[in-house]
Amino acid sequence: MKKEEWKHTTTRPQKEAVEKALSFLPSGAVVAHGGSMTLEETGMMDALRSADIEFLDRAVCKTPEDSRKIFHDALMADYYFMSTNAMTIDGELVNIDGNGNRVAALIYGPEKCHYSCRNEQGCKGRCRSC
Question: Contact 71/102 with Cβ under 8 angstroms?
């Protein structure tokens, strides 16, 4: 991760991780997210929904057109929250993305991305599950 010039923070418990992530967001920031059970389970989504930000919440979309608009708007957000499926020992992210929105945002989207990674299940070889 140092080689890639990523800034990272390791936190435990989950409440501390949520508080730390929210501390990076200025009031009024435009924030988007990729679909993530990790963000839901850690309480991050509820925290983002109640924060003093403009939250592009795809969970409120009623139509495919609404979802498509949010996916596009997310690319121009100030911050993007997502989880990653795995991270290699070398710090490379591994993502499997059904819609392509998370990977698109990761590659072409906001300059400030927050990646949540839970290292609860290890995997053998050069990869660790997040």
Answer: no
